[in-house]
């Protein structure tokens, strides 16, 4: 069924993958609670993770297998534009240093599990909470599918691919069946435990690559010269080793929009709410930029692949550039080390995929099942529904990979970023002000979503007329320019304008608003303040 399999790489990959999967099953006994039949335990790991666990968990959640293969692939194809991921992962931490601490406190106080839970309490609107929940689930599904794209790139490079559907997808179906099984059993403890191994492998692989590759490819001067020569010969006006007038606005808007979107994803919030206290979050928002250094080094592998004259494996309609990093390791390192690198990518897919499926399942359970289907649900029933929903979510992501063009799955993730940004006013801004009217926030969400979808519909490329990415050409708005802009940022501005104008109008007509179930002190509560306490101490506030 499979031909030309690289046996040594496959054996190393399989051994590490199986070992880590075993850790996933054992994780149910790690920091063992009295019962796993509660969302606080299954879905949030007991809300008791310290600084180190949280650092690995959030790092493993945000820096995914897809990041490992896609960022260098973008640098390989477009040059400097691919480095947008580096500044956005730097500027987001100061922004979210303030936001996530408040979210943790109010969630601790009111026993909230999801961002939609917060919106429900803050604005007293089940409808707005439902929109936030659906948005989170829809945006997360293609994100999970992208983790499969990362594993698939590795499996293709190893040789586990073929012309038939079974040959192409059987290994990835097996991998995700294992992932689904241990996530069902161990909940958030599984990715938290595995993240230690995943990140250790990635640090070792990247540091080795950055040290060894220049010695084989003529030094960094030779690597950059090879990349510059490639882009000088390209007819694409938007590529190059430096930014130019055509892609600078796209770079800036994409970096800012991606930074704002990243912690609105429900899986990012899940990692934060699993933290023990406010200081854990403060330490992590200060230390997580270490991953950005790793990301910058990782992006350079795209230029190294150009210097190494890597040719991507064939894709469905075009060369699959996601294979350039696996091919780079396969061509420049011994087979056993390439197997380690492939395992790092594969395991790097398991951690975020597990957290994302748990986060999506929690949204369904808390904000759809409990709100509309079973208002008297017990904690055990909630945990059961979440476990089953996490399986359904994984199956949906798997079907995306099997049934859709992989490139369209990647574009769907970019669309997901545009979608999740529309929850910014109600979730992120809602943590600081209750000025917006709940009806205006709903109207803003509708306007932002509609405008965003219109812009995405008008994004095309050589192989697709619509929904071909998130870089919206400003010429579509009547501007005489070749510049593009990140659609999500424009859409959320439209969202905010409608929400602000709507709030003024609804207040002028004295339309009834929802009840705010929170109080200002709730946003400063720490672990030593009992949940349900009236007011934290002044010391805690300080």
From TrEMBL:
CDD domains: SLC5sbd (cd10322). The chain crosses the membrane at residues 6-28, 49-75, 81-104, 125-146, 166-184, 196-215, 251-274, 286-308, 335-364, 385-404, 410-432, 439-457, 483-506. It is found in: Membrane. The keyword S-adenosyl-L-methionine does not apply. Residues 521-542 are annotated as: Disordered. InterPro entries: Na/Glc_symporter_sf, Na/solute_symporter, Sodium:Solute_Symporter. It is a multi-pass membrane protein. The keyword Amino-acid biosynthesis does not apply. It comes from the Bacteria. Keywords: Membrane, Transmembrane, Transmembrane helix, Transport. Belongs to the sodium:solute symporter (SSF) (TC 2.A.21) family. This is Monocarboxylate uptake permease MctP.
């Amino acid at each position: 069924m499979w031909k030309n399999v690289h046996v040594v790489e496959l054996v190393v990959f399989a051994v590490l993958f199986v070992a880590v999967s075993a850790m996933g099953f054992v994780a149910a006994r790690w920091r063992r609670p009295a019962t796993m039949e509660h969302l606080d335990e299954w879905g949030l790991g007991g809300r008791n993770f310290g600084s180190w666990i949280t650092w690995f968990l959030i790092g493993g959640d945000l820096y995914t297998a897809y990041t490992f293969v896609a960022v260098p692939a973008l640098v390989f194809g477009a040059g400097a534009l691919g480095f947008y991921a580096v500044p956005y992962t730097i500027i987001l931490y100061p922004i979210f240093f303030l936001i996530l601490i408040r979210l943790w406190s109010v969630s601790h106080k009111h026993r909230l599990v999801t961002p939609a839970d917060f919106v429900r309490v803050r604005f007293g609107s089940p409808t707005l909470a439902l929109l936030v929940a659906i948005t989170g689930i829809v945006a997360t599904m293609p994100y999970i599918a992208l983790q499969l794209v990362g594993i698939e790139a590795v499996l293709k490079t190893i040789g586990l691919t073929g012309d038939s559907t079974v040959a192409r997808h059987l290994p990835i179906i097996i991998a995700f069946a294992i992932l689904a099984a241990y996530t069902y059993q161990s909940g958030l403890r599984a990715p938290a435990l595995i993240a230690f191994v995943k990140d250790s492998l990635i640090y070792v692989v990247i540091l080795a690559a950055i040290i060894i590759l220049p010695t084989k490819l003529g030094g960094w001067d030779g690597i950059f010269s090879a990349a510059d020569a490639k882009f000088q010969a390209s007819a694409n006006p938007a590529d190059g080793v430096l930014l130019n007038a055509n892609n600078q606005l796209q770079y800036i808007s994409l970096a800012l929009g991606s930074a704002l979107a990243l912690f609105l994803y429900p899986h990012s919030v899940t990692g934060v709410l699993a933290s023990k206290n406010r200081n854990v979050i403060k330490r992590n928002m200060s230390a997580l930029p270490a991953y950005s250094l790793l990301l910058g080094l990782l992006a350079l592998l795209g230029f190294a692949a150009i210097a190494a004259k890597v040719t991507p494996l064939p894709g469905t309609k075009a060369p699959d550039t996601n294979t350039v990093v696996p091919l780079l390791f396969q061509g420049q390192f011994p087979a056993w080390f390439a197997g380690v690198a492939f395992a790092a990518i594969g395991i790097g897919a398991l951690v975020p995929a597990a957290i994302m499926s748990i986060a999506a399942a929690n949204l369904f359970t808390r904000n759809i099942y409990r709100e509309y289907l079973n208002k008297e649900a017990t904690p055990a029933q909630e945990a059961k529904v979440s476990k089953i929903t996490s399986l359904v979510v994984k199956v949906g992501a798997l079907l995306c990979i099997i049934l859709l063009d992989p490139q369209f799955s990647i574009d769907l993730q970019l669309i997901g970023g545009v979608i999740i940004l529309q929850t910014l006013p109600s979730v992120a801004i809602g943590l600081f002000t209750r000025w917006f009217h709940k009806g205006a926030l709903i109207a803003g969400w509708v306007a932002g979503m509609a405008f965003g979808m219109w812009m995405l519909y008008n994004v095309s490329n050589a192989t697709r007329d619509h929904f071909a990415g998130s870089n919206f050409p400003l010429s579509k708005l009547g501007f005489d320019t070749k510049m593009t802009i990140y659609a999500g940022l424009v859409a959320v501005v439209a969202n905010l304008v409608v929400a602000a104008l709507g709030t003024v109008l609804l207040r002028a007509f004295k339309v009834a608003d929802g009840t705010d179930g929170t109080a200002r002190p709730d946003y400063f509560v720490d672990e030593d303040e009992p949940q349900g306490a009236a007011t934290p101490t002044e010391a805690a506030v300080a």
